[in-house]
What does this fold into?
Amino acid sequence: MNDGLITFLSLSVAGAILVSILLLLKPVYKNRLSHKWQYYVWLIVIARLLIPFAPETNLVSNLFSNISTEVIEPITNAYSHADGDFFLGDGAGTNQPVLAENPFYDPSPTNRKAGATEIIGAIWFVVALILLIRKITIYQSFVKYVRAGCTGVTDIEKLEQLGKIIDSQNIKTNVELCSNSLVSSPLLIGFWKPCIVLPATDISMSDFRFTILHELTHYKRTDLLYKWLTQAVICLHWFNPFVYVIGKEINRECELSCDEAVISSLSPKERRCYGDTLLNAIKTGGNYKNSTTSVTLWESKKILSERLGAIMTYKKQSKVIVLVSAALAGLFLCGATYVGAYSSSPSSNAEVTNEEKSKTPLGTKEDYQSLLALKTADYKNLTVVEFNNNLVEWSTQNMDGAYTAVIENDIAVRQFPEYLDAEERSFLSLTVKASNNENSVQMRSNYGKPPIDPDLSFELSRENMELDPPVWTQLMYGFSYQFDANKLTVGERDLALTKVINEVQNFWNSTDIKVLADMSSDDMLEQLKTIVETCSTETVKMSVVENYFMFQTSEMLK
It folds into this structure.
């Protein structure tokens, strides 16, 4: 849900950026490029608002990486450490819990409270669905109302003229012709069974001809479908004020570009007659209209004034302008692609479930041998920087094979081959995992992202079903740490991390489960802070990451 919500929000932000670009540049292209270009260029914006695919490196993804890091990284670094596991490390003894990775906090659905993202997602979906249903219902009512008051046109001359225009436009579909005195303007309704509705039939043949040409041009261009696609985007991105600007601009350019298409084949005298037809349309008809999802001859006097001006100043574009228009459309498309959207790649900190990861080791014996070669006799005496550099070199050499199989799969789910001993497993579970996380943090900084401290997150749970009523507790916590990687050795770092893990584990196991269940979230958070601060030293400063904290008990649900 986190990834999906962030991706959707990133699409909305990307769309807002593209809308802003078009509006800022509008004074430049408004009177230079065709209205057809200005109409269809919005399809690129709509596509950006709907399609989450983008290059791996893009503008919006970089902007949202900070948000995704806060939401996702704490979870993908999560471990659970349970009784019966032992960490074999320098100075750690043999009775300390090993890290068993569990990338997601995934308690039973019956015990889990809805998170903020689920609530936000539910609100978005409900509002979007209501808006869409409302628009569909209104349109259906509009069509039903219009058709109920329609009477078929019986004027033979007008029907013959309609047939000639349909043939000249190469339209194969049957088009109905009706009249309804209540509609405010001639309009076209119906996807599959198009119907042109006139407010009156006592119009001149010139006005009739141009009205039919206008409405059939809308039909040929599937403007009705375009408008519905726009309305769907508005419903999905209802919280984004920029989508309403898109709807307004598309409605405006829809009529301007339709006029342009009609008059492109007319003589100057016929263009003036076409303008007269628009003016005459104001004088006829009633007040009932639904311009949002229908295509009409005129919508408002303000737009009509602009349309008449465009008709009077119309000039056919030269080939140079056509080529420039095509080039600008291509450039804007490339820009929209670069603006992009957030998406998590499989190799990054993406949300995947345990079931999606292999439950059996993927690394071959050769893969493990190559990685365990880093476990030299004196690796604990190396500085963290030295060891991390060795791991980077190994990862670079094995990116397509052992890195994916061992680090991204086997270490991630702590599913190791049976031939590995406990010391080798602990080396992989803690040393390699911690260093790999630190390298990821360093890589973020290299790409200009805000610096963050490396961190680890863990999950603990206890239950006693023999009690009446049964008692259970679940905890997710995390801590970040700061240290001088050029001075601290790997052994010192691992020992410091292990100390925190063990202290929390000891508190968790030694405290009576009823006492844990009666604790509040604030009490548990303060206890964790005390433990982590106690374990913090001058060389390794640690602190609880409150954004990772989650504490639930059976008592809380009563």
